[in-house]
Amino acid sequence: MATNYTKYAQLINASTNYARRMKHLSNRIFGEVAIPTNSKSMKVVKIFSARPLHTNEEIIHYYPRHVETHKLMLKLREYGLFRDEHQDFKEEMKRLRELRGKVKVWKRKLGEKTEQS
């Protein structure tokens, strides 16, 4: 014995005018595309039916953990497990500058008061 649902499903799949109009109405009720459209229009429908990006938690709260990553890299560099070539270069230039006697001396600003006055 067929249930009412299976009778309805068979009726929708039929090619009668009534079946076509019922399928159209069903699609409108359930928020689907009512009239068959081409692939370009379906792409637009798919974009608009997707969740808005400003409500997507994965996009809103995506900030790489720069501070923690930097501290981790410094610690790994201390242990010798990570090679920071830029920092190595800066340290080597500082060492060579000290060997030449060209150590930077920071001068006070003109407007500052001295401790003697």
Helix content: 55-70%
- In total, the number of strands is 0
Gap between N and C termini, in Å? Answer: 108 Å
Segments where pLDDT lies below 50 for 5+ residues? Answer: none
**What best-fitting shape do the alpha-carbon axes yield?**
rod-shaped
What would you report as the Rg, rounded to the nearest angstrom? 36 Å
Please trace the helix and strand order, writing H or E for each element: HHHHHH
Strand content: under 5%
How would you describe what is shown here?
- The chain starts with a helix and ends in an 18-residue tail after the last helix.
- The mean pLDDT is 83.
- 57% of the residues lie in helices and 0% in strands.
- The relative contact order is 0.04.
- By secondary structure, the chain is mainly α.
- The chain has helices at residues 4-13, 17-29, 39-49, 57-60, 66-79, 85-99.
Descriptive tags:
117 residues, mainly alpha, rod-shaped
